[in-house]
Input
Amino acid sequence: MNNKAPGGTHYRAKPWWTGVVNRPSVSSLAMSAALFLPLLLCQCATPKALGRVDEEQAAKMPIMAHFAQVWRSTGKSFARSPLATIRSGFAVSTQRTAAMFGGSVRKSDGKSTGSGAAEESVMPVPGTAEFESWLDQEKLPKAVPGTVKLLVDGGQFFPEFQESIANANRSIDSQTFIFDNDDFGMEMASLYKRKAAGIPVRIFMDNLGTRAAHKVKPKTPLPPGFEPPLFMGDHLREDPNIKLRTTTNPFWLCDHTKLHVIDGRTAYVGGMNIGREYRSEWHDQMARIEGPVVAVLEGVFRDHWQREDWRRNWTFRNTGNEKVTLPAGPVPAGAVPLRVLRTDSAEGKFEIDRALRAGIAGARKRVWMESPYMAEEGLLTALTDAAKRGVDVRVIMPGDNDSGVMEKVNLQSARKLMESGVKVFSYPKMSHLKVTLCDGWGTFGSANGDTLSLKLNRELNLASSAPGLVEDLEKKIFVPDFKVSRQVTPGMAGKEASTLADIAGNQL
Output
């Protein structure tokens, strides 16, 4: 891999073991906790919901419920795809060990010595042709033309999305992390069922994320007498016209992607799942995409769909991604270059993290980030390094987080960031956006600022240096969100957390 920036300056990551040797401060107990804690946690969900045989059995035998979830996740994965499951196990072991050491080792001056922190270097300025060329040299996916229409909050996204589904005449491919079983989830299920009577409809959901979400009620009351199905996957399978697949979640890996492709011509990408929280309660964002890049996104869906096909796995046809052929014909007006970036630890893809870290390292004027979960040590180090260079670094976190664990981790991260001059802001309610601007380059999608999204789970982001798109991200997301957010002070973040909490937080 070429790690040299223009002008001969190297940009490389420090090994995760730097500074670990001869540092006995991390006890074996803390190390063990860091490895096993993630087995009880999953982003966008609550720990108590991970295991379920059925409601009555789970209440009487919680241990059996957890064993059932172990089989549902890793056991079935071995049966379906043994080689891919082994690859996933190696990826989880490697990334979690690296995160454990990276999150716990600090020099006496407070600077991180691990976690893959980028060395200071002269990187091309994000948003320039030189920066895009550098990303190409780093073998990141090439930019493909496409139009982008930002849709902020459920009030903008879902009516347009539902209209696209209603008007579809060829095919519907929908992938989501959570397909909730509340009243809005049922409304969407009915819409998919109606369309499946006339055209092919494929729905792909994360099994672990969806089952966990079913145990968490929305904040706003459900309609009187509403009885949710136990599992939305079973409810959708009642319609024989719908083709549905769920992930197996080996070693608790999740597919956190949100991607919908309508008729092969229109795609929706971003952070929203399907459910009432995303429709009307949380602050979130999606984008409508059209143009040649939709073919690439369709290829992403096809890749994820085929991963759960045991016949392809056992005949060894799921080896690598299929080559995508871009459609011929004119590019739509207003199209801009878009990179489709992914995280997929089992396949060795860490494109989102690599591009994000390059953007932060090269920023000269600003790094603005909004994310519900901030925990990955390498990212935190990159942000603090940028602030020390004099860059305007701002981070927006939710003031009312859906996860009590992540709320504590975010406060811990806020302390680290503010110590180095990063400005941290608290959005007045649950903000689920995942958007970053580095000078003239921006990225958005499903990836949070945590180890799960950047190092482990499957994720999907789009990135571009197109001035119009960067301006849209600034004016439609960051400017209004800064306006309503409150800047966090050291006193609001509380006192320093323990080393064990530091280790555990970096596992999330």
Observations:
- DSSP finds 19 helices and 16 strands in the chain.
- The CA atoms of residues 146 and 303 lie 20 Å apart.
- The chain has two domains: 28-141+340-506, 144-338.
